[in-house]
Design a protein that fits this description.
2 domains; 20 strands; single chain; Jelly Rolls; Rossmann fold; six-stranded antiparallel sheet; five-stranded parallel sheet; alpha+beta
Length: about 475
Amino acid sequence: MMSPQKIGLFLFSVAAALLLISWVMPKNGVEVFPGFRIHFLSLDEVFSTAGQELADITPMLDMVATMDGQADTAATEESLIVPGEILQPIEMNAAAMDALRNSFLRLDTTQPLRMHILHYGDSQIESDRLTSYIRDKWQRQYGGYGPGWIPVMSYSKPGGVTVTTTGPWIQQTLFGSDERQEGVRFGHLLSTSVIGSGATDSTRADTLLTATASITANTCLYARAKQFNRVVVFTDAPSGGGQLTMEVGTAVFTWDLDSGVQWETISLPELVSDVQLTFRAVPGTMVHGISLESEQGVWVDNIPLRGSSGTIFRQSSQSLLALSDARMQVGMVWMQFGGNVMPYMKDEQQSTDYGKWFGSQIRYMQSVYDRAAFLVIGPSDMATKIGATFESYPLLSHVRDALRSAAISQGAAYYDLLEAMGGLQSIPAWVASDPPLAMPDYTHFTPAGARLMAEMLYESLVQARTKAMVNED
């Protein structure tokens, strides 16, 4: 047993060693591997009584209070809350303005109206957090029911939609770490759900497997999104002979699963909130997605790509994308990325290279969705702990500038999410606010923050629409 003197000497030695390490350690720490840095606090940081200096986000908090106190009435330009100096304009050159004008003209004049808006993004948009708010605004303005496209299997629970599966489903994505099955290809969701037993499956190719998906649009969705009367099932089978059954209440719909790509649409006599699909299909049958919608209207489809930096679009199937464009009448494509590259950026050249790479993804998507207006939504403010305080990532503004350059050069519009939040060093204030607008990870929005950000983006879209119409030749 150690004596008190020896214990005291041991603790003193450890403290002295840590003090020495702290003294010789570089201010920004030592990077052990990409995204992981060891940092020792200095004596000033340890004993300082000063807290984190926070940006002034009073206008945002005032807007949250106003939104909470206002009845959610019909979405028109006249009912907008005007946020004044925190309104972040959407940046557009002539090509982007023309494309946006054409999309809004389709919304305003097409009868009967059917338009899908594809909202791609990283984990910042998971669970329908930003998308759902704008979808609700436009569905009440232009019509439409249902949340739109969802996958059968997903890393991220679709916001407000519960999918319960049974049977041999295999999730496949372009953005995950799943082992890729042979012959799998990807459509507009950049993921697919395969019916089979895995890479070592010994089941005969002509054997029919049974897999089910029970889908419920929950009450947490906005009113129009939690009901639908049209179901679209997008399948891709290596051979025919299977069958798909859809049960809605007491009604039963059945159709054959043919070889190749199949886009089946079932119209229902009334609005419902849940369906059950039973697939009897050959191994390797892909279900590229299911859309819960209505005969007419507009849908903003939430397509989160967890962990992605937005550089995987060119790996999708161009023919599948072209089919979805023809069937869905895609009017806009929103691409919200940049956050996932931040921990790995070493210098400005890497930021520039990332922007160029992202520009090639925009070009690819524009080649397919050639009637759609494109909007790139840049990264939000993100902070990492340096010493005793949280500071915005050093290269965040460079990544933002690279994405803006890529967007404008390709004739896409650009929305600066970083500046909309209040600029660099704004996220600590979002985390510390009451109510909190950002999570303690100093990256993701809380539900309140996501709703605020969605309202700001919506208002900026309305402003961009007005600007595009005024500048019409």
